[in-house]
From TrEMBL:
Organism the protein comes from: Pogona vitticeps (central bearded dragon)
Protein name, entry field: Podocan
Database matches in Pfam families: LRR_4 (PF12799), LRR_8 (PF13855)
Acidic residues composition bias: residue spans: 578-595
Taxonomic superkingdom: Eukaryota
Amino acid sequence: MHFTFQTLLPVLWLLVLCSSWIQGQKNEDSNEFLENSSELLDVESNSLAVPCPKKCTCSPEGIVDCGGFSLKEFPIDIPEMTNHLSLQNNQIEEIFPEELARLFRLETLNLQNNRLTSRGLPEEIFDQLENLNYLYLANNQLTVAPKLLPRSLISADFAANNLTKIYDLTFGQKPNLRSVYLHNNKLEDAGLPESMFNGSDNVEVLIMSSNFLKYVPKNLPRALYKLHLKNNKLEKIPKGAFSELSGLRELYLQNNKLTNEGMDNETFWKLSSLEYLDLSSNNLSHIPAGLPRNIVLLHLEKNAIKSIGADVLTQIKNLEYLLLHNNKLKARGIHQQAFQGLKKLHTVHLYNNQLEKIPSGLPRRVKTLMILHNQISEIGRNDFASTYFLEELNLSYNKITSSQIHREAFRKLRLLKSLDLSGNNLQTLPYGFPKNLQSLKLKVNEISSISKGTLSGMAKLQELYLSNNKLKSSSVYSNAWRDLTSLKTLDMAGNLLTSIPSDLPESLEYLYLQNNKITTVPEDAFASTPNIKGIYLRFNKIAFNAVKESTFHRLKHLQVLDIEGNFEFSDPLKNGSDEDMEEEEEEEEQEVEEN
Ligand SMILES: *[C@@H]1O[C@H](CO)[C@@H](O)[C@H](O)[C@H]1NC(C)=O
Ligand SMILES: *[C@@H]1O[C@H](CO)[C@@H](O)[C@H](O)[C@H]1NC(C)=O
Ligand SMILES: *[C@@H]1O[C@H](CO)[C@@H](O)[C@H](O)[C@H]1NC(C)=O
Ligand SMILES: *[C@@H]1O[C@H](CO)[C@@H](O)[C@H](O)[C@H]1NC(C)=O
Ligand SMILES: *[C@@H]1O[C@H](CO)[C@@H](O)[C@H](O)[C@H]1NC(C)=O
Ligand SMILES: *[C@@H]1O[C@H](CO)[C@@H](O)[C@H](O)[C@H]1NC(C)=O
Ligand SMILES: *[C@@H]1O[C@H](CO)[C@@H](O)[C@H](O)[C@H]1NC(C)=O
């Protein structure tokens, strides 16, 4: 049976009224349970003569809310007919058995965020609460779980306590139990009974993240669809631990100490419904064999993976997202056929590895390829010859030089929209960019010139980032922007420009030219860009009398004109050392020569 939100809707509504189950979900791994739900109950509060403890709100339906009043003690006069009792966000340390025993009709008991210790919780009472479905005890100070909880239980939340021990009948023998929250406790393997869920075959959600487990617990309930075990000390997944969990869809194992020795080729194989597997931040040196075919999202980042074999991924026919960043992959460690037949695989993260070149045999349907922060120095003619569907390619922070990019390397990338080559060793703008690019980033290189033809035909380009390069006004081809009829953003900040680029496209909206050596702003500098919204000229060398107000008059859309940090250069008495002045004179001479 599958647990869906539709089937649970009526239950959910009830819970919204009297507790904060939803919030418990939302905050799965956090300790905040501060919501104040008493407003939700105001509707009926003053309507009739239901006896009600001071400050609390009570409804004729048996809902009593005493949440958030800093109560130090369990209220003595709670009506016996109460079905749903909320005492969350108080300071209760202790509950006496007789206080709770009266309330045998309780279906929901919310004691979340109090100061209950195990000694202060009368566990012998629980087997008398024969109707109890929902028990919320998160954010208390319990050190051992109650020995026996009612058989009627549906959901139990013990997150964020200091639990070290669970007993056979804490969660065992509860045929209706669906969800158990135990994250943020201090559970070690020895604190769990051999068969923690014996007779509780319908548990679907088990959250045990942030404990101290070394082994995956044995005898997990077969109905599980969500199992969270992240932030433990898992070293080993015992043989068969997952072999009965054919309904499991979401398995979190990240941030543990798993190695390949701690699992085998059958560990995951029977998880035929698994869609989401997170093995990130472990100590895997290769991808485990025998991953099941329905995984959609596979997290393997932050391990020590060095290679990808021919047949570890190919059976995962539904794989869409493969995250392998922050590993130790080299291109030659990735088998040519590693991604073969993965027709749904559209997003691959390979950043922060040790790739020395583009791996061969990239998945054919990849749309997003993140391959930044590697050691790639060249792009060969056929590296992207079969990735026709690529839309976003991030190659930033590698070691690519202009001459090592083959002129035809990108010829097949007709769908490529975004290319990032920032932080490489490009000296000139390379030839052969895909014509349909919308965004091209070339920041932080050593580009000193833009030659004729490099930007030709790129009529869809909307953003061009060339900041922090070595561009000079004289080395930008004079018709460079001619074809860029969609260009909205041009960023040339942090270069060596001495004048404002001319013949900018009419579509331009934002022009970034800060930190250059521009000295003048001619009156017609923006004549070709009537749509411009932002002009950034901060920290150039423009003299006060070198800018006329009329230059900007006709720019109806102009919102930002940032020209700070310029004018002091016109006044030798203000800051600026002698050196600065000399430099400025040189620049001015150069400009004259260029003109
Ligand atoms: C909870 O809600 C009540 C009624 O709206 C309000 O008086 C009280 O200040 C709230 N408490 C907190 C902690 O927000
Ligand atoms: C859990 O135990 C630690 C000491 O081991 C203590 O500092 C902490 O306050 C305890 N937390 C709770 C919720 O009782
Ligand atoms: C599991 O429960 C059954 C009764 O439902 C009992 O016979 C069996 O001994 C229990 N097994 C364990 C390991 O506790
Ligand atoms: C696991 O490996 C063993 C021996 O190497 C092999 O017999 C078995 O078929 C493999 N299982 C899977 C699921 O690949
Ligand atoms: C990872 O595993 C290797 C052996 O496979 C071991 O030498 C190393 O200490 C482990 N690293 C961590 C952080 O556990
Ligand atoms: C490429 O990666 C860098 C670094 O994370 C990031 O800043 C940049 O936005 C990415 N480029 C694109 C086009 O997403
Ligand atoms: C220039 O001098 C002014 C005061 O004369 C000072 O406030 C400003 O910080 C100085 N700027 C620089 C860049 O040194």
